[in-house]
TrEMBL record, chains A, B:
Residues 11-25 have a biased composition (Basic and acidic residues). One of its GO terms (molecular function) is DNA-binding transcription factor activity. The keyword Nucleus does not apply. This is LacI family DNA-binding transcriptional regulator. It comes from the Bacteria. SMART domains: HTH_LACI. Residues 35-91 form the HTH lacI-type domain. Keywords: DNA-binding, Transcription, Transcription regulation. It comes from Georgenia subflava. It holds the Pfam family LacI. Residues 1-25 are annotated as: Disordered. The lineage of its organism: Bacteria, Bacillati, Actinomycetota, Actinomycetes, Micrococcales.
Length: 379, 379
DNA sequence: CTGAAAGCGCTTACAG
DNA sequence: CTGAAAGCGCTTACAG
């Protein structure tokens, strides 16, 4: 198929070579300089100010209609698109939101990011996404770079780090950003800065523990994430509390800190499958891990939920699609994303807002009452 | 938990109220103006130029070490972060890549975006993501807005539209962007503009058709996407050609244009389950649809692959995780994302580059040889 | 090597 | 209502 050729007949501004200093505009090859507001104004035979007013006050221009028409026509003919950076610099406003998250490839973050991008679009804002891969030094680096972009807001998504000292320089950056009029929103993990959307991890996994205990299980194991993440800690803590509420506890050696990936679950499954006295129920603090766990147990000939029940946390789309479908704590990611942007839009930053979001226990096929013989064996 | 209080003891520039005109800097409330290079230069007692040189030529500064130290110290103390917009305006360079895709919540795009964000980061570039939800008018709107950002490159990801007229205004925008030195990369769908990464949809589904035909299937159906998308068209076309290669053809009424979602697959499953003479093999041009199809067939009591084999296209992570695991055409999304950014980095835009990417047929458990009784019934 | 100054492309008080 | 001009915060040729 032949590539289409470019229409080069349009009248483009035929400016002479720019002035001595500041020779920044590229004229190499066929490249032409981008159309400027000045070019539009010249073609429309109006002043810069008028051109700017016509183009910016959409519909609300109160001047002579003739001028308005000329400006609009010139802009359309020249294919004018304002220089965002010049606008931002001159008006000290920004239409960008910076989004800092752990890993966009993770469905959990992809969904949250999707909601944030969509809500932002509805407000006429752009989202610049950076991924930190759960590395505080990367997080610091990107927050700094993002700050240079002078976004309207920076949304920090995902779990925070337990080690406050690692976060201190990041906090300093965010505080500076706030002091200069930026909005900081901390989503789903408290960071001690800015507005917060708090996901009630603890109460979510606590309630899940109740539900599982009420199925008759007494021997539990937990797969949680790296110990340095607050989310991993809180979900574990809530689960432990929930068991305590039922007079149960997690035996020593039953808490496993694994990679927050499918592979983490697969590896743990081998370990559990090989145990002489297996738990009858495993709680994985992250759905991806739970999915790996189920697959791994099955591969090792362990029936889920016949021999071992598995529950997760997050309710990513995958949860409902695997076999058996995963019992989990559902997190309203869409809502969280929306709320995050709404907080980012709040003008008055003198008040820190905090929104609490609850998870919902959703029971599916991956959990079942404790197997009779195990219960008997136990008793 | 008590929120931490902010350290307000740092020495910040104590500038007087700015000049008459251009009063843009906000001083409301506790807000202070952002630290400028001029503030750093003043504190370090050097000129603006020197401060700029020290901060920009990392390590390569050849001037007096004393000056360098003073500038660095001042920048650190004041928490200076350069104004990205001023830099972009003054130097006519940009560190941003614009990414236009259909829907970030779709795993296919999330993976591609992940690879693009990661590769861009390695090159010191930011990615701004916009989603069009497969609406050409949205696409036009966002390409325009993106152009205002003066990014280094715009990556258009996902299928193109068959209707060229809908794409014409978008093409005009992209062409103008290119003419002013921007790089356009069209990923996985030809758009007649810029560099291209071409996914060989046709040959991929053709090869899949061969493989399925060789399992003995003769009665096929196809679930493809909206007729206006080139990807939907090409995958269907390739599959049809592949069947032809084996002397087979798609019966009338066996091609279904469905939503490219799980729901699209679920709905189609009901229809197929109710057919008096079902196909023995269904090809869904998108994995999410295939997954919905399998779940839907199972819900309607149809055994997969015992009664009906199902194959997809894409090999998103979900494919390997459902039961039965999905046979599909694997697309190297990570590689595609990487290559897209590499193309975006190419300085010389006089040559259009085109990279061809092949899919790989991966057979899993969702497809099986045609059931014996069906074969007999057929013969 | 260092600094004074022009320029990047806009917006917006200030005059007329 | 409209325009001339200053200013946003940088970079970078040009002089010294």
């Amino acid at each position: 198929m032949q590539r289409r050729t470019v229409n080069r007949t349009l009248r483009f501004p035929d400016r002479p070579h720019p002035r001595r200093a500041g020779e920044n505009r590229r004229w190499e090859g066929v490249k032409r300089a981008a159309v400027r507001l000045a070019d539009v104004a010249a073609q429309a035979q109006v002043s810069l100010a008028t051109a700017s007013r016509v183009l910016n006050s959409q519909g609300g221009y109160t001047g002579r209609p003739a001028l308005r028409e000329r400006v609009l026509a010139a802009a359309a003919e020249l294919g004018y698109e304002p220089n965002f950076h010049a606008q931002a610099l001159a008006s000290a406003t920004s239409t960008t939101i910076g989004l800092v998250l752990h890993d966009i490839r993770d469905a959990y973050f992809a969904l949250m990011a999707g909601a944030i991008v969509r809500t932002a679009e509805a407000h006429g804002l752009f989202v610049t996404i950076v991924c930190t891969y759960r590395d505080p030094s990367q997080e610091l680096k990107y927050v700094k770079l993002l700050r240079a972009q002078r976004p309207r807001a920076i949304i920090m998504a995902g779990s925070g780090f337990i080690n406050r000292s690692a976060f201190e320089p990041i906090e300093t950056e965010l505080t500076r950003f706030e002091e200069t009029g930026g909005v900081v929103v901390s989503v789903v993990g408290d960071r001690g800065v800015g507005h917060r959307i708090v996901l009630e991890n603890e109460s979510g996994s606590r309630e899940l523990a109740h539900t599982l205990a009420d199925l008759g299980h007494t021997r539990f194991a937990v797969a949680t994430g790296p110990a340095r993440l607050t989310t991993a800690r809180d979900r574990l803590k809530g689960f432990r509390l929930g068991l305590q509420d039922r007079g149960l506890e997690l035996p020593k050696g039953s808490v496993h800190h694994v990679d927050m990936t499918r592979e983490g679950g697969l590896r743990l499954a081998e370990l559990i499958a090989a145990q002489p006295e297996r738990p009858t129920c495993v709680f994985a603090a992250f759905d991806v891990v739970a999915a790996g766990l189920i697959a791994g147990l099955q591969q090792n000939g362990v029936d889920v939920p016949g021999e071992v029940s598995v529950a997760g946390f997050g309710d990513i789309p995958l949860a409902a699609q695997i076999t058996p479908a995963l019992s989990t704590v559902s997190v309203p990611l869409e809502l969280i994303g929306q709320q995050a942007v709404e907080l980012a839009m709040v003008e008055d930053s003198s008040i820190r807002r905090s929104i609490s979001i609850d998870g919902t226990v959703v029971m599916r096929a991956s959990t079942a009452p404790v197997p009779a013989r195990v219960a008997a064996h136990d008793g």
